Predict the structure.
Amino acid sequence: MPKPSNSEIMMEQNPSSAASEAYRSLRFNVEASAFDDGIKTVTITSAARGEGKSTTALNLAFAYAQIGKKVVLVDADMRQPSLHRTLGEEGSRGLSGYLSAYCSMNEIVQETHVKNLSVITAGAVPPSPADLLASQEMVLLLEALKRNYDMVFIDTPPVLSLTDAKIMASQCDGVLLVVEYGKVKRNVAKKVKEELALAKAKLLGIVMNKISGQAAEAY
């Protein structure tokens, strides 16, 4: 598979950067939770759009693949999918096609240019994404992916605007919440936590994103 020219994998573009080291640290923290609690499926979401959840999901998946873990990244944002463009993969056959019984799991899993990293694109935009994610087919797909991969990362829409993320969070072993530094207010963050608690999701942690060097030192 050729390497896409518009890759957003910062760990690949600049592996010695502070951002790359932050993703390695995130991998270590998730690994610690995974070792203790048997976590293999992780939903990655945010409170609102534009906070960097998809970039975080992609780089975290790469960080795992880099240490020899067999990883699959699933684009479950079937309303505004992006991973097929970022990775340069074919996007017409994807998650929505499988959940609608148009194609098999073998047809939707694609290898990427990154060793050990596979991807399932979102596919064509369906009329009711939430219903597909809540289906028994999605449960069976997650079970199959857990058998075949060391880690399964699910990129979803934001929590507050749609039910999709809560559905996936309830089905996965854990959830990572991506928060843009200085953007999300305390009451909004509290609301997100409440929504995830109602979904009986296990919050693994919060990823602070888009922090300037000066703010990071102060933090």
